Every structure is written in C-alpha cells, then in structure tokens.
Amino acid sequence: MAILSFFRFEPKGVHQAALLLALSSAANGVLGLLRDRLLASSYGASRELDIYYAAFRVPDIIFTLSLFFVASTAFIPLFLERSEHDARRGEEFFGAIILIFFAVMSIMSIFAFIYMPFFVRFAVPGFRAEDQMATMMLARIMLCSPIFLGFSSLISGVSQSRKKFLAYALSPIAYNIGIIFGAVVFAPRFGITGLAWGVALGAFLHMSVQLPTLLRIGVRPRYSLASVSRSFEIIMYSFPRALALSWNQITMLFLTSIASVLGAGAISVFNFSYNLHSLPLVVIGLSYSVAAFPTMAELALKDKKQVFFEHVVSGARHILFWTMPVAALFIVMRAQIVRIILGSGSFEWLDTRLTAASLALFAIALVFQSLVTLFVRAYYALGRAREPILYNMVASFLTLAVAGSSIWLLGPDSAFKTFLESLFRLENLGHGQKIAVIEFLSIPFAYVFGSCVNAVLLGTGLFRMNGKDVWVPLTVTLRMVMIVSVAMGFAAYGALIIAGTFVSLETASGILIQGALALFVALAVGVGVCYVLRVREFLEVLDAVHARFSHRGVLQPEIEHL
Fold it and tell me: Which of 286, 444, 431, 265 is nearest to 342 (CA)?
C-alpha cells in the first residue's frame, strides 16, 4: 500500500532522527500559531471561545490520568525488558496494557459523561446556564479525544522502542491539522460545536498516523489474563510524572473557574497569552532539560555528585542566558507580537491590549518554568520523585491563593490597581468593558508567582543536597544576563519608537516592519554587550557552533537536544 510505503522513509541514525523531530516541532509550532490566529480572527476574545477552551478542562484531566498507563517513559523500558529475550512476552505486555487502558478509560469517560453538568458548573461558575450547557455539550464531544490520544501514546511507545520516529514526529502535526480543519470547515456549518468535532478529528488523526508504523514493525498485541495482573507495575514507574501533570491540570481548572467570573473573553485571553509564551518554553527550557537529562542520570548512577551538580548549574546558566533576553523582548514587544500573530478579524483592540499585558507577565514565568523543567529532571535522575510533587503541590496552592486574593485586593479604590493600569497602559479599560481588566491580570500574575515559588523550592532543595558552592557561577550568570537583557529591552524600545515615526502602525506590514527592526537592533546590541562583557555562556555557544561547523561543515542537531 502507498501509505505503508511512505512510512518506510524512517530516519537513519541519531542525527537524522534529531533533524526530523526538530523540523516537526517547528512545523507544529507554526501550525499552532495558525490555529490560534484562525480562532482569534473568527471569534475574538469572546464567550463562544471561552466555552471552547473551558470544554478542554475535563478531557485534559482524563488524558493526564491515562498517563498512569501509557506514559512512554514508563512503557518503553518495561516493554523492552520483556521483549529483549522473548518477543511474545513483549506482545503480551502490550496487549495487557491495551486492555487495562481501555477498561479504565471507558469507566472514566462514562463517569465524566454522566456527571459532566456538575463538573461544568464547578469549572465555569461565571457562565450563564445556556453557556454552561454549551460547554457541557462540547466537553462530551471531546471525551473521545483522550481515548484516541492515549492509545496513540501506547503505539508510539512501541514504535520508539524500535527506533521508528516518523509517525511520532507527524502525529502532533496531524492533531493540529484536525483542529484547523474543524475551525475552517466544521465551525462555519455547525457553529462552535464544529470546533469540538475538529478536536476529536485531530485526536483521531494523531492515533491514525501511528498505525501504519505499528503494522510495519509487526508487533501484535496478545491477550492473557496473567499478563494483565502483572502489568499493573507500570503505575509504579509512571506515578510521579502522571501525578505532577494531573496536579497541573487541576490548577488550570481552578484558574479557568476564576477567569469565568471576570467577563466574556477572559478565558480566551488567558489561553492565547499562555500559548504564546509556551513556544519559547518548549524551544529553550525543554530543549536544555532533555539534553542535560541523560548525562545527569549517568553521573547520578556513577555517584559523581560534584560533577552532577556542576552539570545542573551549567544547564541552568544556559537557560538563564536564553530565556531572560527573550522574556525582556516579549515584555517590550508584547503588543507587536500579539497584533502580528492574533490581530485580525474579530480580535478587537481591547483583546490585543489585554492579551499583550497578560503575555508580559507570562514572559516572566518563562524564566522560572524553564528552570523548573531542568530541576525536576535533576531530581528524577537522582531517583527522588517525591520532592518535585510536593513542591509542585505547594506552588499550586499558592498560585490559587494569590489568584483569589489578588482579585479581592484589586478593589475600585485600590492604589495598586491604578499602578497596574499605568504600568500596562490599560487606563480607561477597566470600566464598562466586557472583561474586568485589572482583576483578570491577577490570574497570570498568580501563575508567575507559583512558577517562581516552584523554581526556588526545587533549586534550593536540589543544591542543599550538595552542600558546596557549585551554584555560585549561576549568580554570576544572573548578573551578566540581567545587564544584557536590560540593554536589549531598551534597544528594542527605542527602535520601536523610532520605527513608529516612519511606518504606518495601522497596517499589518507596518507593524511587522517595526517589530523586525526592533528585533534586529536588540539582537545586535545583545551580541555587542555579550562580547564586551565576555559573557561566559555566549562564548561557549560560539565555541560550540565553531567546533561543529569546522568539524563537519554543517550544523548537526543531536537527538537529546530536542
């Protein structure tokens, strides 16, 4: 078959696999931005789009709970262990996990379907009765997505264990294509319900892309009751990661609940700004964390404690080097970023200004969240999974406490409220608007606060284990990168003002030119300051690039750098 033939084009070797995954991540990021632009253009920050985003909350929690059985970090080692000497044992394990997964998911989905009215009333108490009914309908349609996505994760675990990465790389792209198809084709015909069917279609495509590879490698699930009883040990391996992700989803559920009472469009603005900050988080924070993990695990196994912590500090230094300037540029150029990516159609000027203000806060969280991804993996490498879960729970509680109390503190006569209006240039937007503007900012502010607490708790607990001053270089990097970031921020701000005098800011092309010029000037200033100050991380990056080019002639990515 032609489809099966296409999936024969698997990457050969680590470098080709790395390049494939890097390209797929870039393509998926572009599709994600296109998806958000389509939604913003069609609906703006509206109650309709609030309903769509709120409908994700229960299916997302169910999918996260499915990771107790399908998490690849737990499934792949256990599958390989059983398949190493007896392929049949591996197939029996695969079949047993499929049975357990479908049994548990069926029970949870039926339970969620029946009690969805209760969950929706809790998730969006600020919605009117008819809006809650619409949210319930969309959430029930989306209940099929965690089943498709979970089964896809299982198949992906088998494929990756055989070093087959093509389907794994294509599946998130297929998922976004399904959602975009729903927005372009289904939504005009069926209204907002079409968006939910697009999500279901995307999840089905995510799974379907994996099937040809499974057929090609010839692994067939076998079913045995004895294997089922022995396969529950997967929960032990996947428990820490699945519990942490489940707790994050519960936190997002509470934040959505708070946003629902702040007016139509609040949930949409929160999701738009959150998605915009997630792209550099994945590209920078996750890349360095994944790259550092194999070495950290190896050093922990060899009990090379001092070298282990030096490696952690090295990863943290480079994360700060990249994320702090990016955060500074996001803060200064927030309006340009939002207008270029989302500013079209029904996305109003108020939506732009409020999303930009929220993005500025999320930009600060980018630094802390990137460090969290590294520190959590350091704990896992040391075999200490309890501390990250505990710290995550503490940070989540504080996030919700700050979100709730901030709304109460930002009363009509609050001096702090006036200060925030001036800081984010939101004067005269807090009265008579569809969203309680300043009160809404308490939600991303609470997210930033929780991210900061989580990073500090994780970092403090981690370096306390060593008892030495290996973290001192981190403070040096922090001072240097703060200087670079401030210089880049001022340079970008000045370039924006100058460019605004000779380009039209009423057109998308004018805003794009303004933003591109500011970015170019900021990067030039950043490189110059790094060179003058002899910033260590900057010189290390230059040496690494020079060594790679001079050795091979081309820049070759490594699989662990993704």
Answer: 265
Two structure tokens written together for 394: 């503490």
Among residues 170, 169, 171, 136, the alpha carbon closest in space to that of 151 is found at: 171
Digit-coded pLDDT (tens) for 515-525: 999 999 999 99
Beta carbons of 79 and 161 less than 8 angstroms apart: yes
> Would you say residue 514 has pLDDT above 60?
yes
- Structural contact between residues 45 and 269, judged by C-beta atoms closer than 8 angstroms: yes
Structure tokens at 174: 């297929």
Q: Residue written as tokens 């939600």?
A: 443
- HEC letters along 22-56: HHHHHHHHHHHHHHHHHHHHHHCCCHHHHHHHHCC
DSSP helix, strand, coil percent of the chain (3-state; round to 5): 85, 0, 15
pLDDT score at 384 = 82
pTM over 0.70: yes
Cα-based distances in Å from 238 to 68, 77, 252: 5, 11, 21
The DSSP result for 107-156, as a single string, is: HHHHHHHHTHHHHHHHH-TTS-HHHHHHHHHHHHHHTHHHHHHHHHHHHH
Complete DSSP assignment for 218-273: T------HHHHHHGGGHHHHHHHHHHHHHHHHHHHHHHHHHHTTSBTTHHHHHHHH
25: amino acid identity, one letter: S
Grouping H, G, I as helix, E, B as strand and the rest as coil, residue 435 is: strand
